[in-house]
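Subject: Interface between my chains keeps coming out wrong

I've been trying for a while to get a sensible model of this assembly. When I model each chain on its own everything looks fine, but I need the whole thing in one frame so I can look at the contacts. Pasting all components below, labels as-is. Any help appreciated, I'm running out of ideas.
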Amino acid sequence: MPSEFVKIISPAKKSKRLRKSVKHSSYRLFFMALPFLILAFLFSYLPLYGWIYAFYDYSPALGISQSPYVGFKWFTTMVSNEMQRAEVIRVLRNTFGMNILGLMTSVFPVIFALFLVEIKSTWYKKMVQILTTLPNFISWVLVYAFVFMLFSTQSGFVNQVLMNVGWISEPINYLASDSYIWIKMTLLGLWKGLGWGAILYIAAIAGIDQELYEAAKVDGAGRFRLMRHVTVPGLIPTFFVLLLLSIAGFISAGFEQFYVFQNAINANDIEVLDLYVYNIGIANSSFSYSTAVSILKSLVSVVLLFIANRLSKMIRGETII
Amino acid sequence: MDSWEKSRFSLFSILNYTMFGLFTLLCIFPFYYLFINTISDNDLSSRGLILFFPEGIHFQNYLKVFHVQGLKLAMLVSVSRTVLGTILTVAASAFLGYLFTRSEMWGRKFWYRFLILTMYFNAGIIPWFITMKNLGLMNNFWAYILPGIVVPFNIILVKTFIESTPIALQESAQIDGAGYITIFYKIVMPLITPILATLAIFTAVGQWNSFTDTLFLVNDSKLFTLQFILYRYLNEANSLAEMMRNSTVGQVSLSQMPTPMTIQTTVTIIVVAPILLVYPFFQRFFVKGIMIGAVKG
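Reply #2:
Try treating it as a single job with all components included. I did that and got this:
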């Protein structure tokens, strides 16, 4: 039956009809995707409209139509008002400080992977890999809960053990203290992410051509020589991709971590840019000023993204965007 | 194989095994420590005497904690957002990923870029918060679900995965008269289950762990999630005291009497338990997932 049908209509008519049905189905496909495109618009594009709040003296009671337009006032107070300038500089210092420490620890997953592949026992290697990736899957709230219990002054494991051993005579309150807070946060990040971070490198090592190892062994290379001259060079591309990606996201990293660990004592050193925006914006309802800070942050992250992209092009000849 | 035998007991190997052993212990000890404290004598535990092994084992803390006001409801909220959020996100990722492989879609390139672009910019916390408020998503359960349905990264993964499957299967179904939906459901879905499983696990863990959406958008205690409740318990002495009053019904001995600390510890274990339970089964999926992601990145 279909073949008969095809014979009756002329070729010209046929192609017209075909085009029509293709066009029809092409709209159909679009309409099927439309609800999702609307969701993306609502949650990603529409918030950009909220940037106008930075140019008004917005008060929730009046609404945006009644609030006075103030132009760049909020942006200029950020730099001209001495107190606010000091605040912004402080949170930027915290953001950059902790993130740079974080970037410096990004070599640890490489080292982890390098040494893990040296372990010959398969079950041991597997066990290490499974158990060390576990912390990556718990939330920062849970990490906070762990730290809260393990380091508590009255009953916490760490204080108890240290006192039993006799290293300290008084329990130390690790959470309510501002000393070394950047380093503490970095170490926690390392605890949480190290095993997981190494997975990619372990995969990359598995992908290195075995002939390279054979050849190097024939030339008399030992374990460390193989590492230095075969494995490490094989890992460098992956390392750079990940490093560049983390540079692009660096200014918005870690809100949750720093939020749960902030308290009255460490607030000064732990408040990163996003936390600052939250604290002044949502907790204190100064919407306009914090939107202005938000906008600057977004601009900085776009700049960082482009820098990372340019660097990536220079180093690897490939872009990340 | 000669060098292998030699290296097996070398100093390097011993050091290497020890270091990894120590780090592994460091990773799992907190889980273990909290757990033994929840099942031990509460009096000993509150004096910090339970360090390595449980003592005076009892399960009263778990029974008591379920009487704590609001905890059951929070559990329901957490479970429902995890289940519903995961189903919708995975279904949407699969469907959209499929639609974007159909080159005849109207404006395909443009709309694909429209989605992908959202990965690279972010309006910021405050504009996002105001938008959510204007959309009526303050104190609304859907605030947990809707913003996470369309995730560009998931769509890239699914699209790439479909493109690596044989297109001839889809074509022959089309010749047999199957429509787009039928092809998606009968041909594409079965082919891409591995990637969908990976996405499902990642989404579920993300939903379960999510904390900031409750923090920003919810102040109605009926919609609090377990993560949020736990955070509050760790920080607010008042709500803990209230909990204690509600949970200590009937006579209990000192060793089984809940203390603020046992409630905090027990809730922590309850929040972490689902992850610990699914983790061993899905660990290889996690690993596979990050690999597939890495190939794309």
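Reply #3:
Confirming on my end. Residues 40 and 57 of chain B are 5 Å apart (CA to CA).
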